[in-house]
Prior knowledge:
There is one protein chain. By secondary structure, this protein is of the alpha/beta class. 40% of the residues lie in helices and 20% in strands. The strands form 2 sheets. Strands 1, 2, 3, 4, 5, 14, 15, 16 and 17 form a 9-stranded mixed sheet that branches. It has an 8-stranded parallel sheet with strand order 6-7-8-9-10-11-12-13. Helix 6 links the parallel strand 9 and strand 10 (205-209). The chain is globular.
Amino acid sequence: MLFTAKYVIPVTAPFIEDGAVLVRGDEIADVGPAEFLKAKYPDEEVRDMGLSALMPGFVDVHTHLGYTALRGMFGDLPYSDWKRAVLRREVLFTPQDWIDSARLGSLEAVASGITTIADITSTGSSFVAASEIGLRARIYREVMTIHGDHADAVVQEGVDDIKAWREQDTSSRIQFGIASGPIYSCHPKVFSSIARYANENGVPVAMHLAGSHEEDDFIRYGSSPFAVHTSEHENHRLSEAYPPWLPAGVSPVKYVSNWDILDVPEMLAVHCVHVDDEDIATLAEKGVDIAYCPRINAKLSMGSAPLIKFLAAGITVGLGTDSPAAVDTTDMIDEMHTGLMITRATSPDRRIHLRSDQMLRMATINGARALHVEDSIGSLEIGKKADIIAVDLHNSHQNPTNNPESAVIYTANQDNVKMTMIDGKILYDNFTHVSGVDRDGIVARANELRERIRANVDNDELREAMLDSASEDRRDRFNR
């Protein structure tokens, strides 16, 4: 089918006014001016998307879609309080709850023009949801323990889950990797064990790194609320039996670099807010890619990542929406808008400006590069997968426009996405889910979950019991 629109934005080439994209099967067969392609393929069925921008689907390099049902619950909490609030609610989730919550997040991702996610999960819920709904995905199995003698075992548990998921996956859309838990919840042997496995098996790795003031203080000085968080991740009564954290006196980047995890072939570091010039040089030297998540960094008072310095150092930076439990929406257009505004407002040199086309690349082709899949997705090019979206630009505040790339970022949001195609299959069309997924049922189950959490979260006795068993149950939340 030949899709035509007022604008076609290939991303890796200049935009085309009155353009078209030819889709054959699951691939892009041609891109160019509409009249030229209509003449070239006279027998091809034509679908006109009108005053829209046809562009590659967004590549969201950092998500936690299993937490979607918690959106809107935590108001204006700063990071450490927000993290504790999430921990006290997630233990109330059943295995089915995690899957239903991830299904809700996957539906929103598709409706927002996101065609690829890179999700960190300890339960496998995002794998189930992405597979069912049709998303392209990189699923990172999260592993963590504060006990050095457990490190190899928890990594092996993660490896076993990855093997099981691979056996269940019948598509070519989903890849798998492994991720460490937050630094404050991991003994350093976890990082070494992950590095050994990744290097031996060529598996991609992700980790949250230097994301908050509290994490930075914890690593440098041993002074932060994270001793509490660490114990709650495994067993809140264990903290009395183990000595307190011994401060490393260095930045989080320098700390983890001692344990080989930054040396793996495909390393994605999430956030990297609290880094200095030496840290940035280390990340660049080791070829680490970065997931930039400006909305959650701003909302939770985590700080602002030095994006201009990352780009100047030659680091590949993709864009991530992070946890819906914090930012409430899985909206890559809003992520681009926020990141662009924050970076321009905080740039120390007013002559250095981040452009809208650069931010659009972060949300598409550079996100694909950060996941090392740029040969197949991230731009509208012949031979790439037909992961295509249409963004409606017909509103009065969007017209006239001389630059559709700027119009998408400055005037649109997720509600302007009118069509989402993945692998040549349209999953969302004319602002409606058409994949056959039971959207109403998914939303209803998520609402039931939210009401149950609200009813139980203040029950101290129940919460204590759930926290006691959290470490034992964590691996079994997803029934294979």
